[in-house]
Amino acid sequence: MGTEMLAMILAGGQGTRLGKLTKNIAKPAVPFGGRYRIIDFTLSNCINSGIKNVGVVTQYQPLTLNNHIGNGSSWGLDGIDSGVTILQPYSSSDGEKWFEGTAHAIYQNISYIDHMNPQYVLILSGDHIYKMNYDEMLEEHNANKASLSVAVIEVPYKEASRFGIMNTDENDRIIEFEEKPEEPKNNLASMGIYIFNWGRLRSVLLNSYSKDGQMLDFGKHVIPAYLEAGENVYAYRFEGYWKDVGTIDSLWEANMEFIRLENKLGMRDKSWRMFSKNTISPPHFITETASVKNSLIVDGCYVAGTVKDSILSTDVQIKSGSTIESSVIMPGATIGKNVIIRNAIIGENAIIGDDAVVYKEDEIEVIGYAEVIGVQSDED
Questions:
Q1: Annotated binding residue at 190?
Q2: Number of domains in the chain
Q3: Count of alpha carbons within 13 Å of 361, Cβ hemisphere only?
Q4: Which residues touch 207 (CB under 8 Å, ≥6 apart)?
Q5: What's the pLDDT tens digit per position in 351-372?
Q6: Is residue 182 part of an annotated ligand binding site?
Q7: CA-CA 20 to 30 A from 110: which of 9, 72, 183, 343?
Q8: Together in a domain, 39 and 116
Q9: Domain for residue 379, yes or no?
Q10: 76 is in an annotated binding site
């Protein structure tokens, strides 16, 4: 399927709702689950689905993301007939530099897509946690003789107004699209995953940008244009685990769900493995003073305190007397002595000094990248 369908991952989002965690990195590069970054799930889905060529469209703070992806070897995307290409904004002859929307980002990379010459283009987001077989979606796309297929998932009605909602007929043909409606007619939310017949999409984008250039976003502009033109647009229903981790609460919740031994992602399923580029660190060390319960501890960790219902990412240090509960400690963070951390996310390389308390009763507390709280002693 590699030459048949090209995947384009939109990974340039700033992720402002994640606050301090995305001050220095793009949202898809935010650490997740101890040894992963958010984009790992989309990249792994691609290789597990048999997609061998992937374009990653970046924009905001791309350095960490670029270094993480590298040549794609961690996902098996470095073969003779496979590859991953980082696609960053560049100055064109008409002076355009930045991607102004999802569809505009694809338009700006038409030359790359034409070079790959796919029959289908799979548009993906780089900031969701899920497992999905895109090959099955393509099979349904072809069975429906669709021009565009949109992956959808049922969400609670109380949350439906946060999403683009697809209204369908009895055959799941989309007849109406509502962008974040106040009173949604149903709860079929777009997952931001699309399969387009490339020839048709290419024509639509080129026609628009030769006139008014208004095709900036897939949800706001392209999908309504397809519906108005009478194109065959179908919903592809997804029933597995899917999490949009675009807010602090959802990121924390997804990590807490990830701790469960039988989590819905099925991370121990060897037939659909999640891959990542991992730091080579020594085995974790649990001292005799430590207590660890129901937690994930990754390589390089040193634990001399109490850890419960939490995730310690690579190279985290927890010194004696400290208590970590229901929290996510991202890579390289150091927690001093007699610290209390509850319901929190501690950013990469943060330093929490001795005797500090990181906890708020009614919200998830966040410490940012390399942020320093208090003064840390040199001794354990």
A1: yes
A2: 2
A3: 0
A4: none
A5: 999 999 999 988 999 999 999 9
A6: no
A7: 72
A8: yes
A9: no
A10: no
